[in-house]
Fold:
Amino acid sequence: MAPPWRQVDTLKGLLWGILLVAWPLQLHAQPKCLYISSYHKGYDWSDGVERGLRGGLEGVCELKQFDMDTKRRKQIEEIELAAEQARELIESWHPDVVITADDNAMKYIVQPYYRDHPIPFVFCGINWTVEGYGLPYRNATGMVEVAPVGVMFNQAKSILNSAQNAMYIGADTLTERKNLSRFEKAASIEGVALEHRLVSSTAEWLEAYRQAQSFDFVIMGSQSGINDWQEHQVVDVVRAETRRLSLTNHEWMMPYTILGFTKIPEEQGEWAAQVVKSVLDGTSPADIPVVSNRKWEIWINDAILEQSGIRLPDPLIRKAKKLRK
Structure:
């Protein structure tokens, strides 16, 4: 047996060997990226943003996600609790960059606590404009989410030849109130009288939809935030009772809508991922301009269209994607 002093030297050698192996691994450890979603998994928009983000950041950083779930938990106390939990995660995990999606993460986390903070933030999915949040900040940049509102009004007027009034139907949420404001401005420019119904239940939504059949056309805002949403019941009523052209800019509303000009959520996540890479390489967020989404798709729901008796132009039908379920 080796003498005790020889055993100690051997042990020291092993420890130094372990440290020498581990040290380069520490130097090359992946940076940490924290993704804060305003909403929840299973919400089509959020799932699309997440797909784009995760695809772009695979192998780039350790990605941790926190979902605020503010579509289903809409009370101010619930939103503030989720914001506080997200803030605690930021302070304890020390991410190298934080990515946020949609308005509530900006309103309840970034704006009050991290404006011009040393931690860089990349946002996406903020509806229409960042003006209400006092941006730009030195530590933040992102992509704004805009809908092709003008295109929707122009198509409705072209298809109907004459359209003087419309109804907007959506959930009673912060996002839908912002969306409605933009549609009201566009309607004023286009000379269309726009009424609206922002509702909290399936029964209220169906009542609003039936009322909308007395208008020239219907704009379908998002139903997300209506917690008792009954998809099969809504589909049955819409297919049986639709007599007016309906349009949406949300792909997940196409089961209930004739014509869609829809945003692509993956675009938001993919763009955010590219910006995160630049930030991790040393670019300041202040040097990266805030941009708007640039892509959308055209959709037609054949089942509702056939039942409604409405005719769409052949060129539009040829270029559109078809929802047949």
User: Anything to note?
Assistant: The chain is about 45% helix and 20% strand. The first helix runs from residue 4 to 27. The radius of gyration is 25 Å.
